[in-house]
Amino acid sequence: MKPVAIVTGGSSNIGWACVQRFCADHRVLIADLQPPQAPLPEGVSFIQTDITSQAQCAALIQRAATQGALAALVHSAAITAEAKPFDQIDAAEWRRLLEVNLTGSFLIAQSAIALLRRSRGAMVLVSSRAARTGYAALTASGSGTKPHYCASKAGVLSLVKSLAVELAGDGVRVNAVVPGAIEGAMIPQQRWAELSARIPLGRLGLAAEVADAAHYLCSSGARYVTGHALDINGGTWMN
Ligand SMILES: NC(=O)c1ccc[n+]([C@@H]2O[C@H](COP(=O)([O-])OP(=O)(O)OC[C@H]3O[C@@H](n4cnc5c(N)ncnc54)[C@H](O)[C@@H]3O)[C@@H](O)[C@H]2O)c1
What we know:
Layout: E1 4-8, H1 13-22, E2 27-32, E3 44-48, H2 54-65, E4 70-75, H3 91-119, E5 122-126, H4 129-133, H5 147-168, E6 173-179, H6 192-196, H7 207-218, E7 229-232
Parallel strand pairs: 1-2, 1-4, 2-3, 4-5, 5-6, 6-7
This protein binds nicotinamide-adenine-dinucleotide.
């Protein structure tokens, strides 16, 4: 029987690409607020889940436990915000970004730990190049850096390190993928050409390219890789 993979945010773009990549060798549970617009591939099910709800994360994991060994958790669900100057961001907006992007990561990771320990599985959290640079674009523009998005994604990178240390003894690996500009609704299409001109590899990334990286990190090929943050950004930021 194929092992189970959970993909949060699996109904859209990067998450959906992960669903398509993982369903070749896993039974996949999509955890998202709404189902994907496309038909579900064979072996894929949708469970409506708000990752800011501890009860809904627990219900998702209970459902996963009935499906088989949880080999992989890919956490892609997140939100972004409108860019505006720092002094115009209100505290409610700041809290909402942190709640979904960082607290949601904590809740889903904590909920999944027991099953991942049992199957010595792997976790991949989706961060962002914005965590590295402090601005959510290729350059810091006059319209604002989205500091709440950047901070939430930097928090995800830190969480990956803490989890990797805490879970290594149980054989559970925890890594991050760190996308740059990826084609999809998060970046308005009218900006793609202008951004491409400033990316060393000459184009935006594809969701499938992030999915390939997440799949690798959950595979036995990455069995000695934990606590790593894998940049997928066309050469726009180098460690
Ligand atoms: N697209 C990019 O250029 C880019 C770049 C860097 C990082 N990222 C990161 O990649 C991930 C996916 O990005 P994307 O482009 O696929 O975004 P997207 O907006 O297309 O998909 C995000 C998905 O998360 C779901 N979601 C939002 N809030 C949720 C909640 N509370 N509970 C459950 N599901 C929820 C949405 O319904 C949606 O299906 C995000 O973590 C994002 O921060 C994206």
